[in-house]
Amino acid sequence: VNGSVTRSNRVSISRSSVLDVLNAEETGFVENVMVYQEQLEALREGTDEIAPKYAKAGDGKHDKSLKSLLKFPMNGAKSNDSQKFDGNMNKNELKGAGNHYTDNDENNEREIGSKGTHSSQPPPPPPEILYSTSKSIDMKKSWHLIQAIGPDENAVAGSTNQDDYVTSLQLDPSGNYIAIGDSQGRIGIFDASESNGVNDDPYQFYEEFVSHHPDFDTLYSRRIPTNIIAVEWLKKESRSLHVLATNEKTIKLWRLKEVHKEGQQTTIIPVLCNDFSKGHQRFFIHSLSAICDGEMFISSDELMLNLWHLERPDSSFALIDELPEDDMIEVNRIITSAKADPTQCHRILYTTSVNEVNICDLRARCMQNRPAMLLQAPIKGMNASMEIQRELQCITDADFARDGNQIVTRNFSNVRLWDLRKPSRPTKMMTVHNYNPGLFSDLCSNGCLVDDFRVAVNSDASGVVTGSYDDYFVAYDLLHDRKKWLQARHAHDFLSAEMPRMSETGRKVLHVDWHDERDIITVASSHSVYVYEKKVGAEPETMESKSNMHYT
Questions:
Q1: Superkingdom of the source (predicted)?
Q2: Is residue 481 left, alpha or beta, with left meaning phi > 0 and alpha meaning psi from -120 to 50?
């Protein structure tokens, strides 16, 4: 933006740029004030009645405030209509423009108004004419990779441990900590609370511990993998951190306790507080979400949704129980994800494989088989087999915005934004994967259509991020109807808004999260976690264009 810089422009630029702009404005302001003073001096003979009153406000007869100077049109001429404005100038804004406005000036002005001396004087021109700068401010923000946690692609290719990959991640509510779960049952914690901006990596290693060990299911005679399916931060009530973690069968509550010893470094000790293992005996846990009251959480498998109390690990309450009475009955509708509202402790949602988003109110009834609100988008006809259509309409994840009014959902092909105040249809729909019959048949045959892609929305529902194949993920800017495809790699590539050609379906970005207070997103790809921040600056090798968003 060339020319004058308004207050709204300054919000998004860096602190150093703000200082440069203010210095330029101050220089231009002083020059303009001197011109006004010279013109005012030429008019003093016709304004003897009010000149002493304004002179009292300063130390000398030529010391005039900004507001008193604006009382006189340039060259003694009346202002035309294009120069008029409401005249109700903000006192704080005038104080900020070189501190030329004082309380004495306000009293003098009140005294003049009572006498009606200049009641016919036309309103002054807008104060923006006093601001001048030759700087051009680049307000464009773009996504930049600020940290990669984990080995790079070359190191992984030469490693013998190819089965060690990221299976879950989550930022804590403050955004200062990242919890990363992997396929070996470990949880890694990274901390940015003490970052001073000196280090290149804002998130520093905090602690790593083994949460789940290999186990065996005696009922079904199968080995239980150690994969950390989900991690969930609890509200921080003390110096210790509390995190929930689960594999397919068992949920565990961990406390990270800091032990301080004189003359030694602080030691972090992970302590197992509770073991929740009796709620999901027949099916596999896929979702874990803490309720904002800090006392309860929910967990879900394909047919059950349970409510737990943190201090009662031996029992849970079934909010949803769709287990068939006869094991021979075919199940066509399963639960695919569950989430608790981050701002209202009585509201949760769960999604299903038949294109349903169910909003439940825990105050209304105990069993939530009948939701308080049902969101369901119409399915457009497509020339595909029933198997592919069934997978395409399966909602894999959903997330609440912190405003409490909007949610975002993800299926294989699309991301939809819903406003709970207008639940009849989604307010926006963004395409992730365009329909291609040949490609979808290949994906269905190799099992890719059942990949559970996660989705995350920022606090005001103006941005959404979700993943795709070949280490790509897409960030949507809903305010400007744009999207950006990025590749989660140490040597990352920036692409246009068009969907890239994906050559490797074995590498995928399934897990994503968005900082609650800043434009920071985290994405997990195979063995590493990547942290991106949206900030002012040139975007290398970037093309940006309008996205293919659909409005309803």
A1: Eukaryota
A2: left
Distance CA(476)–CA(463), nearest Å, equals 5
196 alpha carbon, distance to own chain's centre: 22
Q: Which of 310, 315, 312, 327 lies closest to 279 in space, CA to CA?
A: 315
Burial class of residue 279 in the structure, from the number of CB atoms within 10 Å of its CB (0-12 exposed, 13-18 middle, 19+ buried): buried
Range list for CATH 2.130.10.10 in the chain: 141-551
Tally of CA atoms within 13 A in the half-sphere of 516 that contains its CB: 15
CB-based contacts of 503: which residues, under 8 Å, 6+ apart? Answer: 470
Residues 6+ apart with CB under 8 A from 193: 174, 176, 177
Q: What is the mean pLDDT of the chain?
A: 75
| CATH for the stretch 141-551 | 2.130.10.10
Q: Is the dihedral of CA 220, 223, 227, 231 positive or negative?
A: positive
The phi-psi region of residue 478 (left if phi > 0; otherwise alpha if psi is between -120 and 50; otherwise beta) is alpha
Whole-structure pTM value: 0.71
404: left (phi over 0), alpha (psi -120 to 50) or beta: left
**Weakest mean pLDDT among 148-162, 298-312, 394-408, 440-454:** 148-162
